[in-house]
Amino acid sequence: MKIFSSILVVFLLLLNACAVRINERLQNEIAKKVEAAKTQGSKSVSDILSPQVLIWDPLTQMSWLFPEGIKCPLCDEPLKVSNFLDGQSDYRQPMVLHGKSSNILLVSRILRCPHSHRFFSHSQYVLDFMPRAAVPFILSHKVGFERSLAYELYEMISAGMEVSECVRLLNACRNTYFQGISELISQHPEGQMFKNGEVEYFKEIMTSVPGRLMIRRCFECIYNEKKNSLEDAVKATTTSDWISIDHTFKSVKHIKVHMNGRYLTQLKALCTVTNDIGQVLTWQLCKSTTFKEIRPVLERLRDRFSKQNVVLKEVFLDQCCAWRKLIEEVFGENILVKLDLFHAVQRVTKFVPKHHPYSKYLLRDLRMVFRHSGDIGLERQRETPPPHRVARKMKKFDKKWRKFGLKQKGKTVYPKAAQDEVRKLLKHIEKGCVSGIQPGKGTIRNEALHRKLNQRMNKNRISPTFAIALMFSIIYTVNSQLARSYKRKPHHVDTIEEFGLQSQDAIITNDESMDADETQNKENIECKLAVWKLLKKSAVSIDPTLACDKGIELLQHILQLSDEISEEGHDHLDENLKSHGLMRVPSNADGSCLFMSISFQLIQLLTDEDIGTKISEHLSTLFPDLFCAGEPCNIDQETLAVRLRAAMVDEWRNNEEVYREFAPNVNFQTEALQYLRRDVFAGDMGDLMVLAVSNVLNIAMILVTTDTDVPLIPVFPSNVLDKRACIYLAFDRDRMHFDSTARISVKSKPIAPSTTPPSPKSSTCTCSCGVNDKTPQKRCNEEAESQYKSRCPCAKQQKPCGILCRCKGCINSYGHRSTKNKGSQLKGATARRAKRQRSQEWMDSKPVRSREYMQKKGHSFKAFSKKDDFHLIQLNKSPESSAYLKKRFTEEHIKRRQKTLARRDKYAKSAMGLNKKGYRGSRRPRALTARETTMDANTWEPGIYSAEKVVDQQLKNGSMQYLVKWSSSDSCTWEPVQNIYDRRLITAFEDSQRAVNNDNTQAKKKKKKKKTKTLG
């Protein structure tokens, strides 16, 4: 009996182990809920299937947060409560929040003002008046989460859980919850009478699981709330007297941006700056590994150290000699720049075979090179030896392993690439880059951080915003763990720093340096508004972000998008011009197309009655020897173009600080003089030519581009001459060419081009519009209605239809086709229709200089007319004058050559009767597939001549070759299938071979019959 009583006491104690003692207030609350539960009664099936509902009425539930109420942001009147989003109408539907076990319905209240302006109580405008802890949910533009679930997802992803695993976990929780509901309904007395459709509707609405993109968006929302605290924690980190700078590449290889149906990679590396215990002081996502990208980060870090009273003495990095002077410019001349030992050893070990049996012995000897003779432990205990000792050990190491030359499976443990790296490393050793380094200093601690980042960031594709949020959370966790381990206290200072991606707009300006006149600023604003109204009136749809000072940045971005030449560029440019009521006035592609186009429009603006006087006065101040205010202008267009080029160069050299923002690595004083030559127009400064000329003339310019997404690029000068003056230029991005423009009028005649007359060869144009069309319709009309698009080559080139044209119903606005006395005008073969010929190759087999190419195409390349121009001396003296054109022509030739080889491969397959995969039927061996043949540059290409017959065939290196007899010569050569166009030659040869084989077999059969007769 005593044993039973003792067991009962122990059991009762175990039952009360989880109990908690509550106070009087909680006792009263529990008593009220118990009384309410007694009167509630049993739950029905409808109560079981009723979803969780969150009633959100902050003005009533949390009235202490709004002592003065909330005013309408539109009319500044007080907002009052109205109806709930109870689903009684279409616009009063509740929102769905993703919870832990199931979804929650958010029933929010509508707020109204006396002017009938409505706001939801869950809108961001209302939530900004409340503390973050008072809002039990998080909303984005598409999805909402319960705050407790959002915090759990943030912590799980920060700890290393995959987003897909979070989705699977939430799905399992939803299924478990629904299984419990289903079991409860099945045991209920009314469960059999309840409709299955209601259960399925409950499952569809309340157990839906957010996808990966929604969870990533939730993670970004929590990061945005914690962003300020995370940045303050990183800003509070400090160091002793040295830092390390390192780049990692694997962490950013999956960061991509989705654009135009493709995923584009924009980032190349992640740069981290760590302190003496491995904490991240600052970090930056870089597009390249150049110093100019991390220079602003290091300058802000220097300012932080100065406020924290930290004296920096050493910097460890991989680019020691290349960045030494740049580091000294940032941190001072007394700073020591050392080569990190980890990267020094890695330069050699990355070429050593990992699975070689002697690789570990080589690595051990290499590690001992940077130690004293007595320092033989696992970890280095003393500083690195002086330069002469390290150099002597390195030479001894190189001699030893080069002498052994141990090989396994054809691979040596000390290959040629590793020997080259050792010779390069000796130069750093002799300069003292690896001497005097104390134990523990370097970037070895960064590798642990890099491994953790690579493990977390090794996803298929992630967006830059999610990548920054994830990296920041990982860096914050690592810094917190290291601070607790080393008991490092934070040192908070007030600094302005940016992490992740540097904002181009976050530029601090000094208000005292802005001494511009208010009237001039007013004129600039009026000019921009006038241009914007003009664009808005003429364009169907236009992005409002274009009407800003970012025109040059947008132009630079468009120029860097693609280097491919599009065949549809001309059509897109003409369509964009026509949609704005403009037409193109062609200019010669002689290197001065921009200035010739601008000078053409300047001469047209001088004839304007309203703005011609102002422009004439301004040009008289720029070129007093050419213009006189109040007198008619008789200046030559080419002379004006030459003087505009010289004025542009003077603008660059006199106002270098204005253009330094767009080209920070350009020496304007020296490189600007190169643009005085006609054949120099590319490079970083070439993108600024439009802005410089606009600042010289004080006239706004609008570039009409070939891009359908960004058809217009406005460029505004710093000072505006007249807001009504504007120059329109047609810019062909694919060919880097500018043309002038003119307004389209219904009764206008063809405008004379702004160049010298073209050669007779280029002026000939023929068309045959509507010859085979039986319906009567007018043709060759460039100004036709919108439903008809002219494809007449003469009208597109702004040329009249000539006597060789065969167009039907010609109404060409540039000149009708004359049908009178046609027979008398044409004689002989000219009267007949010109035979259609194949177009010749656009390029030769070798690249040519820009001058030779333009002369070959019939363009005039004239020198400058004035002898007193000081840039005539430098004309055509630089061997790099045609580097840009040579590069573009070489790229175009390579592309066309690849297309030609692909076409030959296609013809060869059809000649052999092969399918797309290279088989003849279903059992053709792979050895007979058509392969690309590499042609020697010194040998002639027989594929361009006609073959007479095929003599023999052979199988060489897995591909079939034929002995071809050429009609143009008496020689026979072995050629692959790609060089034989005529399929009949191969079929004739195969038929002859088949006939010979049949004759041989019949002869053998006759011999066998004779032998059998003699034996019998």
UniProtKB/TrEMBL annotation:
It comes from the Eukaryota. Residues 1003-1016 have a biased composition (Basic residues). Residues 821-853, 993-1016 are annotated as: Disordered. PROSITE patterns: CHROMO_2 (PS50013), OTU (PS50802). The keyword Signal applies. Gene3D superfamilies: 2.40.50.40, 3.90.70.80. Residues 838-853 have a biased composition (Basic and acidic residues). Residues 582-744 form the OTU domain. Keywords: Hydrolase, Nucleus, Protease, Signal, Thiol protease. It is found in: Nucleus. Pfam families: Chromo. Residues 945-1001 form the Chromo domain. SMART domains: CHROMO (SM00298). One of its GO terms (cellular component) is nucleus. Its main location: nucleus. Transmembrane segments: none annotated. One of its GO terms (molecular function) is cysteine-type peptidase activity. InterPro entries: Chromo-like_dom_sf (IPR016197), Chromo/chromo_shadow_dom (IPR000953), Chromo_domain (IPR023780), Heterochromatin_chromo-domain (IPR051219), OTU_dom (IPR003323), Papain-like_cys_pep_sf (IPR038765). Residues 1-19 form the signal peptide. This is Uncharacterized protein LOC118427529.
